[in-house]
Specification:
4 copies of one chain form a homotetramer. Chain A contains 15 helices and 13 strands. Chain A has 341 residues and is of the alpha/beta class. Chain A has 2 domains: 133 residues, Rossmann fold (3-Layer(aba) Sandwich); 182 residues, NAD(P)-binding Rossmann-like Domain (Rossmann fold, 3-Layer(aba) Sandwich). In chain A, helix 9 links the parallel strand 6 and strand 7. The first copy, chain A, is elongated, with a radius of gyration of 22 Å. Chains in contact: A-B, A-D, B-C, C-D. The interface between A and B is large, with 58 and 58 residues.
Chain lengths: 341, 341, 341, 341
């Protein structure tokens, strides 16, 4: 009887990063682990293992030829969280090989950070602390000049996947009217969660806070630029939580600097940001170094979701926690791989 | 038929501060307004008006003798929000004169600010922005070192009146276990809102975030001091949202400076804070200049709640929105009057 | 030092009915109990005990003269749940004697029953079961003829005290638009709970289900009669959960019999209902024998709320769980005392 | 340019049953409709249309040969709601043809009915109405003998798909501890919704109300029988909301008749039930003629969900509302087709 090989090739992740001991133990019950953590697994080792491989944890290139050698393969589980163009997805579909990713692991910390940053832009905590330290604080009503209440303020959400929906749940007690723009979704998905389906324009005109959770696709690069920022209300807040490529970054900085809008961003066109990048001095922007999602618990959730679905797949059941690589969407995605865990 | 006089003596508030035109119009339907906004109403004018006065909006001294002259008086509505020892409360009780205050108007903005500041201490937004501007930001997991997730973290609430309860509702989506210490409340009030009644000690030992919403009373001045801060977990967050007098302020600053806990405070022993006060340079503290409650909408809510209850009282019905000055509690309260609106 | 007497005169309740052993034990810590359960306490015994009495649990007549003899009395706690005209309320107010009742103990079971009966009228469970037993059931869509979905249906709530508000919380997941008619409340109380303040007429015209939780007052007896039922939509549901005296009962039966509306009632003008009362054969009515509130747990809650507030009062603090007998409202109430526990 | 044919073969449904005019109009924008409603579409017509067919709405047999003729086919949308063994699912997977069904359309009315029936078993409405009509009603506490409060009672859910999860949301305000048994799901799916993953045995022992929403599979027929009913608490409630085949029906009737448990059932081994079937006289059972799901709005939701997903598919996007026929599960399902709409 052949052994069940589990090929673990998780760079830029490591197993320790994403699995607590109990979860790793569960993984080891599913087969024999072959792990390459310090560098991508060698082509030689991959070729050697593929005939016995049942599960791949990682971002290993899996072109047609390799898939052909892996006749026992049941699933490829991407633990980086973005589907890349290094897999023959069509063959996977035809063979019934699951290609999945536990990307939703980051939704909870990102949604929490989005609310924290949104409250900060609305109520001005960071700026008020800076003013206090500089001896120019104002008290009471005067100290709230130029701020607004988050509660009840019109909110716009751009991109209504896992991140957007978890964020929506977090703000329920604030009773905001919420508009959603997501061209990949039918209205029912949006109205079921008590939001209003909206065009991008209507959302920008109407919202006091705009949260961007959209993935990058072949169709939406830089779709938020000067014209879009100009549509926003004076003093409104714009929060970029997902991918820098969906906005015209210099236009965003300019809109903040002009005082027209307030901005918070967790992502940058290039990371790490250059030491002399002018964004470091930019006024009207709250800066966060791609740290919204990457919390300790989120990486562990990545691993535990991956293993829980692997267990189901090995029992012949469909995965329940990870996102599937639909051909329809995977061909449109254009996210860069992450360099830093 | 005698006219119904409404005596308006709202300092440090003004009518414009607390009433939008529509609300003021409703007030004018209830009687004839006599207003002193730039200074406290003169004793002479008060004495002159009292026999016809049905409602007082303000913090006018109302000792026994004045009450005796005000035989048609139905209610004294404090629009500052703290009951002061300048009223013969006992006579008011005996005469059935309502003494009330719309203090709950501040609960919504304070609760919102408490969550914002709590998210900031947990996830480190203000500090991360400061680091980014200084060129020492860290990305991803490294950028989250020393932070913790707000979601699911044990929360302690000290003082469970309007502020504490509204805050509790705001954090429901985060599914925190919540302990409450409030010696004036039976357990049922706490458990009904899905919190655990707790001793002060247990709360301090168990909580990752401690929020103080307690009023100052004759019994609780400086009840949170060095010993109490020492009980808190290393790295836990302490947020002072109500009154500076309930803590030993220097001990709080020291606990933050030592790195044992993180602190956010909206109140200070003396406001405005002196320019050379060392708190301005203190490490580990997020500073907010008594601005959590005093938002534009909160002052208008103060006025609209006051007028709505005045309408009920004039119809012979009990007030529904304002807090009543129970003899049992009013004698214990020791809040200083507010100097700044 | 005088002893603290607690006078227990709870008919039609008994202590065993309303207190579990642990709660009774807590009561015994507050003073020395003198109990009359099988009959009202004798005037002689009352007079004897009053000088030492600190708390009264029960519906004892407390006219001026008796109050004068009870100089140490701190509270009268009505455990029947309706304030009666057998107390000199004014003197209690002047003396600072709390007169309170844990009536809210019944809110939870009544709200639950209201939803159960409302779902039954909407979806037709009782009638469908009857049809099935008679061999005339219909399946699938045909079996739902004449029914409607509770989810999303416009709901009207008449009377928005403890009962109405707890009911409102129970139906949140159904996302009904909710109109509220309550002339004793300002709009803020209603809008805060995400309902629409409404006139009685608008509510009746617009609602698919009308729930009545109103108390009987000197002003609202039989205020829901033929004209009001005629305003309701054909096929709408009317649920009488509080007091029979607020409706014209024969008109309600006639409206149900005509097929214009569906009715459920938990109360009747006279209880027990006569064996030959035609209501027993009435079509279109779901009958419930005043059993919505009187559950085992509710009676125990009555006792534990009463004792928890007594504990606060003995500490000099205001009660937190019981309703207070405001002069303004108590003079308007006209509920009959309950005959049956 | 070829025309886009939409083959509509919906028996036992009809287009009018499942689509309001506006929805049908949207469907007509997607292609040219060919409809067979009074009988299954003829093999001849199907063969004729397949080369141009892009969408199939219905339960048409689609064996390998037919799929081979339908080279432009993008989706087969089952509008009956159970996947049947009349499709070559493997070929559909290989070709990227979506096979989906809007089964979740029934989740909302079934969940609502489950709560209504659960409240009825707990609080005894149907039985109390029957007693009242028979002149043997009891009032107050006596009238609640043998009942229990739904609020707070331990609930067990067997089968945690769309139905179970919507039901779980409906009962949130009741604050029940909820155990879930579903062998196809990882614990995370259950704990995320604030429920406890449980073995079947623990669930049966611990729950005061057990709700069955499980589908029939090759593995679970009659898995709830005499032994399982015996594990339940005396007086507990058992509600069969999904498929009769998952229980040993005579054992369920016997358990109810013995007084050990109370039962409500919406489904029967054979429907319609024979006129002389003893279940019609069975004591302790609440009978519902497969009417929980088949409400007017649910059939319309079936159609609008189907059309919304068809619109996405025609744009090259994945469906968002319908359930997909995973090979892993579809081979295990054993539901009988519905005979009656």
């Amino acid at each position: 009887m052949p052994r069940d090989v589990i090929l673990v090739d998780p760079l830029p992740r490591t197993l320790d990063l994403i699995m607590e001991p109990g979860v790793r133990h569960r993984l080891e019950q599913l087969g024999e682990l072959f792990i390459s953590e310090d560098k991508p697994m060698s082509a030689e080792q991959i070729d050697d293992l593929l005939p016995e491989t049942v599960l791949i944890f990682g971002q290993t290139d899996m072109h047609t030829e390799r898939l052909n050698r892996a006749q026992r393969l049941k699933a490829i589980i991407n633990v980086e969280s973005n589907f890349l163009p290094n897999i023959d997805y069509k063959t996977c579909v035809e063979r019934g090989i699951w290609v999945i990713t536990p990307a939703a692991a980051f939704a909870s910390p990102v949604a929490e950070a989005a609310l924290g940053l949104g409250l900060d832009l609305a109520r001005g905590f960071t700026e008020a602390d800076r003013d206090f330290r500089a001896g120019r604080e104002q008290y009471g009503l005067a100290g709230n000049e130029g701020t607004f209440r988050f509660a009840g303020a019109p909110v716009g959400i751009i991109g209504f996947g896992d991140l957007g929906r978890q964020f929506r749940e977090l703000i329920r007690p604030f009773k905001n009217p919420v508009r959603v723009f997501d061209p990949w979704l039918p209205a029912e998905v949006i109205t079921t969660l008590d939001c209003m389906p909206s065009s991008l324009e209507d959302l920008l005109y109407a919202s006091q806070l705009v949260f961007v959770f959209a993935s990058v696709t072949s169709e939406n690069q830089s779709f938020l630029g000067e014209a879009e920022f100009a549509m926003m209300k004076k003093g409104a807040a714009f929060l970029l939580m997902s991918r820098a490529a969906v906005v015209d970054f210099p236009a965003m900085i300019a809109a903040a600097a002009s005082g027209h809008i307030r901005v918070a961003t967790d992502v940058f066109p290039q990371e790490p940001v250059e030491l002399d990048d002018p964004v470091r001095k930019a006024p009207g922007i709250l800066l966060s170094a791609h740290r919204s999602g990457g919390t300790r618990d989120a990486f562990y959730a990545l691993g535990s979701m991956a293993v829980a679905d692997a267990e189901l797949i090995m029992r012949g059941l469909p995965p329940q926690l990870c996102r599937r690589a639909d051909l329809a969407t995977v061909n449109r995605l254009r996210s860069k791989p992450v360099d830093i865990s």
